[in-house]
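User: Predict the structure for this protein chain, please.
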Amino acid sequence: MTAVSNSSVLIALSSVGLLILLREKCPEGIVIPDAVWREVVEEGGNRPGAREVAAAPWIARQAPRDQRLVRLLRMELDAGEAEAIALAHEIGASVVLLDEKDARRVAERLGLRVVGTVGILVWAKRVGKIESLKQVREALDQQARFRLSDALWDRALREVGESS
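Assistant: Here is the predicted structure, written as structure tokens:
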């Protein structure tokens, strides 16, 4: 599965030492547009994701060619989201990795399959790559300040049999 990723998924998974899940879920590789590279690697400094993404040979960088589409998407979205969606659309990616609600809505309108950080984690729990989604949630909350509604977390926990 070829995937195009926005920054949030890369940063969140890196912050809890689980970036490798993306390689396992998407063995054909991850492609990121220039805006995402800039945000995560160049502007990331010592924050989670900067070194991990820069050092991952399975993460490739590619600029979207359709700058008209990028400009249209920028009317609603930030640069990374706009470029990720445009690139996913352009290369026919199997999936685009996005967490933000508005970006997900726009990508789905374009017919793209969208998966976010929690979707990757639910998959990882189901296939035995992580032991506890609850523990990863706690780590994300503490280390990455990753915020998601309790209702969405509760649904994810129910899906993997960890609801209380």
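The CA atoms of residues 57 and 77 lie 28 Å apart.
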